[in-house]
Amino acid sequence: MVKMEASMRMGVPDEMMRIILMVSEKYGVSQQLIMSRRRDADIAWARSMAMYLIKRKTQFTLNQIGRAFGRDHTNVIKVMQTVNDICSSDKRVKAETEGLLNAF
C-alpha cells in the first residue's frame, strides 16, 4: 500500500485517507490528483467515488467531506446524486460501487 505524503494528509482525517488511498489504487489516479482541483474525467470520477464512499461509510458531515476536498457541501450533495443516478442506469458501475462499499 502506498503511503500518503505528510503534506497531503494535513487536515484530512485518517479514515478519509484510507478511502482515498483505496480509490486511488482502484482507479490508478494518485491521491494528490484526487485531492486536486483538476476536472479531467478520470480524476473527477475517482474523486466522486472517494466522496461517495466517505459519505456512505463514515459519519463525516457533508461540510467536513467538502472541506477535505477543497469544496463545499453542495458539491458533495451533487456527487451523491450523480453516483446514485449512474448506479441506477449502469449495472457495471453499480456492481463496482457495491464492491467498493463492501471492501470496508
Instruction: Indicate the proportion of strand residues.
Output: under 5%
Q: CATH superfamily, please?
A: DnaA protein, C-terminal DNA-binding domain
CATH architecture designation: Orthogonal Bundle
Mean pLDDT across the residues is: 92
Element-level helix/strand string = HHHHHHH
Estimate the global geometry from the Cα principal axes: globular
Largest sheet, described in full?
none
Q: Roughly what percent helix?
A: over 70%
What is the name of the CATH class?
Mainly Alpha
Residue stretches low in confidence (pLDDT < 50, at least 5 long) are none
- Total number of helices: 7
Number of domains: 1
The secondary-structure class comes to: mainly alpha
Kindly, what is the distance between the CA atoms of the first and last residues, rounded to a whole number of angstroms? 16 Å
CATH topology: Chromosomal Replication Initiator Protein Dnaa, Chain: A
Number of strands: 0
Radius of gyration: 13 Å
Question: How would you sum up this structure, described in words?
Answer:
With 104 residues, the protein is mainly alpha-helical. It has a single domain, classed as DnaA protein, C-terminal DNA-binding domain (Chromosomal Replication Initiator Protein Dnaa, Chain: A, Orthogonal Bundle). It is built from 7 helices and no strands. The longest helix has 17 residues. The radius of gyration is 13 Å and the shape is globular. The two termini are 16 Å apart.
Q: How do the helices and strands line up, and which of them pair or pack?
A:
Elements: H1 6-9, H2 14-27, H3 31-34, H4 41-57, H5 62-68, H6 73-89, H7 91-102
Helix pairs in contact: 2-4, 4-6, 5-6, 6-7
